[in-house]
Amino acid sequence: MSQAPIPVFDGHNDTLLRFVLNAGTEKEQSFFHESGKGHIDLPRSRKGGFSGGLFAMFTPSKFNAAGVSFNPDDPENFKPVEQSFALNFTNRMFAMACHLERESKGEVVIARSAREIRSAQAAGRLAMVMHIEGAEAIDADFDALEVLYAAGLRSIGPVWSRKNIFADGVPMAFPSSPDTGSGLTDVGRELVRNCNDMGVMIDLSHITEKGFWDVAKISTRPLVASHSNVHTLCPSARNLTDKQLDAVRESKGLVGVNFHAAFLRNDGEPIADTPLEQIVRHTAYLIDKLGEDGVALGSDFDGCLVPDELGDVAGLPKLFDKFRQAGFGETVIRKIASENWLGLLERTGI
Ligand SMILES: [Zn+2]
After folding, report:
1. What is the Cα–Cα distance from 184 to 180, expressed in whole angstroms?
2. Could you tell me the distance, in angstroms and rounded to a whole number, from the CA of residue 1 to the centre of ligand 1?
3. Whole-prediction pTM
4. I need a labelling partner for 29 at 20 to 30 A (CA). Which of 35, 39, 256, 313 fits?
């Protein structure tokens, strides 16, 4: 009998966006049947030990035709998005999560607290925690925040890699410092305070370095970058400098390691033929900087170019084998795989 895979709670995926964009097209698929498309469906999640994660709701600036991969050099992909449009599109992604929960007949749940994630894990259910990537859907009066919170929203990245009313985002530039623009606006500061009060996680992946320090100054919760890597090892504007990592550690925060090849490699190239040792290298560096409680996974499944060697969510046990080969103990691997995210969500009041 083969051993059950190590349970994983992951910090970031774009699966809801993929399912919404593909709905009604020839690429439509069921979440409940195994397919080779994208990175996540329920059968592959079970194979990989994926027991849940933060499920991002991201509103694209440009809706590319099916099959066209995201081009970081096209400025159309970074154009501002209207609040009403973003809220409407966010509703579609949230509704998709609700449909999946209902259709699953108990196999998938939207979890609203760390306690609910733990009980879902214990019962073998997949737990979705609702996250907004780029808060364009939230208005300056925070009415949408109230309603989305009531529906189950528990995490917000104030900004994606484009400017909005809350902050400025980092471009996908390489090589580049993350200090590429302005920080939080006044209404951005209000968003952080409201999220602190409500128990909504603030995600710092995609924010400029100035914005990072603005949040660090006012937030009463641990600092989190759900899907970012180490700038010293891969000088992408999306990765965190040693100084930022020190601040994350100081706050008892967390960084989720991103599997995107261009955020892993020191040449910044999006190459699928990237060995898993590249993920191990960033993880080991983060353990060194943040301690073994401050590192977790932030795969970016369904939103990035994952190394071929990993493939998709079913490949997660291969990564844990690489961790073992690198000398990581079983306790540390289990922390990185799931425990650290749950601890962080608890420290955030979720
Ligand atoms: Zn992202």
Report:
1. 13
2. 38
3. 0.97
4. 256
